[in-house]
Amino acid sequence: MRAERPRQIALAAALLVPLGLLHAFVLAEIGIGAVDVLFLAECARRRDFAWMRQGWVVLALLWWGWLLLCSTPLPLAGFGVAGWGNGFVQAFVIIRLLLFTAALQNWVLTTQGAQRAAWWALALCAAWIGLESWQQYLTGRNIFGDPRWADGALTGPFWKPRAGALYMHLLYPALLPPVLALLTRPGRAARLGGLALAVLGVLTSVLIGQRMGVALTGFGLAVAALFVRQLRGIAIATFAVAALAVALTPVISPPTYAKLVQETAKNLDHFLLSPYGELYTRAAAMTLQSPWHGWGYNGFRTACSLPRFDGGFPSLGIAPTQLGLGACNLHPHNYYMQALTDSGFPGLLLFVAMALSWLRALGTGLWHQPEPLRLGLFIAVLTYLWPIGSTDAFPTLYMLGWLFLLLGFGLALAPGRTRHG
């Protein structure tokens, strides 16, 4: 029993991480740090570090090591332009998230009781975001008194528009187990309950009104229907209701219509001149001037405004970028563009290999046995890593902390994991 105490403490710390990621980032950092320290102590006690031989761990360490090298302020052009504090140290502490994932996979979430507790934590977080989004939609303010964001997006329980992307990533791990449980029960009432739950989940994403959240919610639903035959009719009906809701947004939610439809159409019509087009053009220009090692972590933030990157690509019909149009920001708003600017083409290749190794491990056996929770976690990580779209910086804790939590949970459920205790 005494040997189980460290794991019980680590589980308690891990279950505090979702709460911290929602509303108290310091609490999340403390939870992650506690899990990491306890896991390493357990590995040392057992003299067992076999988990480090897993393919995803090897690739993650190679990517991290290359990023560290590129972020080191060497007396060579392009290396570590953000310096020691904003560049090297920020890259160094990424290791805590990789350790956290390994700890969840191989030790903390290896029992059914721990897995049930983790699912309830995720489901309650998704329900909380959804409930607060509906409250803000119906009353104009969330529980903390915050209104919609200026562009019309619902903020849910947050003061700024974080709800859409986070809700979408949590939706399918939370939603698929109860929906599929209802669909497998006899009787029309259970099936209608499953349909209603699926429609409510997807409709909430539409009303939140963030473009990538809505698009990836639809993508996730399509992936779920591809894997699970019983979901295909439900998915078609849900898509129909969601499309009807979008069509009715000029009446039921004009701010959502302005954000979701009008602004999206405007950006797509003139993408290269939109803030995203300007960012990606600038990131490409920076990459081509330092293709082998990029500019180090936070190099985009530090060096983006230099006039040397103004040029655009006239031979491709891409005009010079302009700071006034949004060519610079804290990061390029895409994980893969960030990998290029941080660590060049070798860093991008390592990042892609790491991402594919995660998806391969999560997806093992799913086609033949699509367990609802495993499938939901696979979809959550897949939507995080989807290359087309706007993202936060990798790995900013308030969004990417969820990725490593979901990833560790999914890997713990996958076949062939290494177990400690």
From TrEMBL:
The chain crosses the membrane at residues 56-76, 88-105, 117-134, 164-183, 195-227, 234-252, 343-361, 395-414. It is found in: Membrane. Keywords: Ligase, Membrane, Transmembrane, Transmembrane helix. The lineage of its organism: Bacteria, Pseudomonadati, Pseudomonadota, Alphaproteobacteria, Acetobacterales. Its main location: membrane. Residues 197-352 form the O-antigen ligase-related domain. It is a multi-pass membrane protein. GO terms for cellular component: membrane. It comes from the Bacteria. One of its GO terms (molecular function) is ligase activity. It holds the Pfam family Wzy_C. This is O-antigen ligase.
